[in-house]
Amino acid sequence: MERNHHLHRQLANLRQSFFDQGYLDEQFIQLEELQDDANPNFVEEVVTLFYKDSARLIHSIDQALEKHPLDFAKLDSYMHQFKGSSSSIGAKKVKIECTQFGEYCRAGNVEGCKRTFQQLKREYAVLRKKLEAYFQFVRQIGPIETASRPN
Questions:
Q1: What residue ranges carry the coiled-coil annotation (predicted)?
Q2: 20 to 30 A from 10, CA-CA: which of 4, 66, 89, 132?
Q3: Is 1.20.120.160 the CATH classification of the domain at 1-141?
């Protein structure tokens, strides 16, 4: 019992670190509030859908950034979709990069778009690794009490 409590404490600390480091925001907590006994993997399923959808968008943006001249309206549209998906899971740092990318699109700043997109992909990859490790941990020890507000 003590070991189990310790593991749940570790899991809670890991989850809290995502908020403390700015990777997740309040929206993630709202997703957790929708999870219940009838759908115990709801958050993980939503996050998995986000990664499937965003992989397609990243590919589309990569291709659009190769075209000359750049179609800023199309890039902005893709990024708007990406930002919406990121917002739906509370991917705070990814969402910030999406916003910056959109501003560069509207300014017609090719280098700004390319640089920001590289940073977005880094933030996206880091968050994906963190969440995959988190959900793997959850599956190993069972869910913790969810929907507690970050400190």
A1: none
A2: 89
A3: yes
